[in-house]
Amino acid sequence: MSAAGCGSPASLAVVGPAGELAALFASEIVVLHVERPYVAPGAILPGMEAGVIAMPSQPTPSEEDEMTRKAAEAFGQAGLHVTRLTVFGDPASEIIDQSSGPGVDLIALTTHGRSGLSRWLTGSVTERVLRHADVPLLIVRAAGMEPDRSHPEVAEKRTKIAPIR
Fold this sequence. Notes:
The protein has helices at residues 15-24, 66-77, 91-99, 116-122, 125-132, 152-160, and strands at 2-5, 29-35, 82-88, 106-111, 137-141. The chain is an alpha/beta fold. It has a single domain (2-160), classed as HUPs (Rossmann fold, 3-Layer(aba) Sandwich).
């Protein structure tokens, strides 16, 4: 079974490569979306005291989650068995937790390839998963995301690596 993360429209870039691998091994796909519980700062819901933070009691029902629908449909059209799963939490932690279950033998992720200030501000889910997962990863750069060329020595190293085709 493979797990494909789905947290943004850009995450669909991994669907094609993950689907090809899954088809080779007749794997089941779990399309995972991790929702971050959030309430706007200063939000006061009816019947609440000021300063109390409320979160929904459960994430979006998996079969109603629009973030997983397109990926699940694409995998299904390829003839693969797909399960959709939506959970609350920190994306990297939940991906790692879900992958530690029985039968998960690959995590497929899309990376935005951020670096510098934007990476420092947003962190890197892919990097955290890469460092802590116990199963192999298939990592695909999001469509339209160009490598950071702000460091010439890094750009030079990247151009020397031939892409796998």
